Amino acid sequence: MEVSRTEAKELIDNYFQTYPGVREYIDNSVSRAKEVGYIETLCGRRRYLPDINSRNAVVRGYAERNAVNAPIQGTAADIIKIAMIRVAARFKAEGIRSKMILQVHDELNFSVLPEELDRVSSIVTHEMNHAFTLSVPLEADCGEGSNWLEAH
Fold this sequence. Notes:
Elements: H1 5-18, H2 20-36, E1 38-40, E2 46-48, H3 57-93, E3 99-104, E4 107-111, H4 117-129, H5 148-151
Helix pairs in contact: 1-2, 2-3, 3-4
């Protein structure tokens, strides 16, 4: 960003003043991980952090960043896996011949028969939107194209 350390610190401090819940989440995540030695996704999957109480600040810092990030990314991974399982089950139950071919982070890619496009789109958005209940709604959308770039 080409800003001084002083200005960068000010930006970060202002961010945490504006969004105090983020600081609270970070502090609570690190504290809990130090207590129990692991973090959990919302689905209960654990990631153990053996270095969370290390005396080496660099090693401990890496574990602390994982304590903050892993529950978020891990929960996102859990949610998309749930959606994938449900989409596959719906395709099988409804005789859909189109195929789920690839997952990229929070996206699912399909090879879709033209005559099934509307049905596949409906199934996929429904299952992704309802894969997990959070305090905020999950909202998925569909794009289409002859390749991944066109679909965006």
